[in-house]
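Write out structure tokens for Thioredoxin domain-containing protein.
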Amino acid sequence: MKTALLLLAFCFLTTRQLHAQPPAGVTFFAGSWQAALAEARLQNKPIFLDVYTTWCPPCRRMAREAFPNAKVAEKYNARFVNYQINAEFGEGADLARTYAVGSYPTLLFIAPNGELVQRSVGYTGINGMLTLADMALAIPKLRRYLAKGARAAKISADSLRRETGQMP
């Protein structure tokens, strides 16, 4: 009886432990492109879009090396809505045309409104994938910074013109 209870407790704890572990690798959104955009708006995250083909060796290598990698998964799962499309079929072919994809793999980082933020062609390795993510995340911050700076410069120039009496 004791052995049966111990075995039952062990099975329960082991099963619970297995279910508590986060999924290994990059998790890709399952659904349509419009649903992925909606999810990105809901989560206020950019989209990482992997545009691949089945015959592309670098695409297969990236799927084998980078997507299962813990560091890549941690960064991409936390910071992006990840989406994958085969550029030769259905919605994938339409998206490849929309974003002017001509080589594979093409990695696109897209704002929740569908605006292209960054494009990279080819597989750059695990460190390259991490760097691409950092760059894509920095670009909107840079745009906000530059926009703020441009507004500040315009305000300063207008103020200077007013003070010197040069305003039309």
